[in-house]
Amino acid sequence: MTVSDDEIAEAGRRVARLLDERGMRIATAESCTGGWIAKMLTDIPGSSAWFEYGFVTYGNNAKSTMLGIEAETIEQHGAVSRAVAEAMAIGARVVADADLAVAVTGIAGPDGGTPDKPVGTVWFCWDGPDRRSMARLMEFSGDRDDVRRQAVIAALNGVRRQLADG
Asked: Can you say whether residue 131 is alpha, beta or left, with left for phi > 0 and alpha for psi between -120 and 50 degrees?
């Protein structure tokens, strides 16, 4: 499935409107998307009112150093896991003192997949508002760019749902 730049930009604008209406601030913690979510959000004029931090924690050391994730958590569950996605989101929200955080960790490919975690496996976590946390596993198809695009729009749509429920 190919997701267009326009679709991603529109998803970002919807999130921006909700954050602005609610006077809330967001932080992102990204691995396989490499900062793409933060880029889409900060492309929007006025984003400094509601965008707080963007963490690109591609490597395990970055996840530990920047977000405070215990090395044992990564070793026990793997970087692409519910436990790590949850820890990334909570860490980003706490470090940034934001109202909401979204975290993404996955395998975009073309290498790195295993039978248990094939290319296209992506874990998400949305933490907040009010420290409500929601984690979700999704499996995407396509090449590296397709997987990353699908992950970006899924992350933004999850933020929108989290804000609509809050």
From this structure: left
Q: Which residues contact 56 (CB under 8 A, 6 or more apart)?
A: 30, 31, 34, 35, 38, 62
Which H or E run contains 107?
Answer: none
Domains defined along the chain, listed by start = 5-165 (3.90.950.20)
**Cβ atoms < 10 Å from Cβ of 66:** 17
H/E segment holding residue 162: helix 144-165
How far apart (Å, rounded) are the C-alpha atoms in residues 32 and 113?
Answer: 13
**What is the value of pTM for the model shown?**
0.96
Dihedral class, residue 36 (left if φ above 0, else alpha if ψ from -120 to 50, else beta) = alpha
Sign of CA dihedral 108, 102, 44, 31: negative
> In order along the chain (166 residues), what is the average pLDDT of each group of 10 residues?
94 97 97 98 98 97 97 98 98 97 98 96 93 93 98 97 82
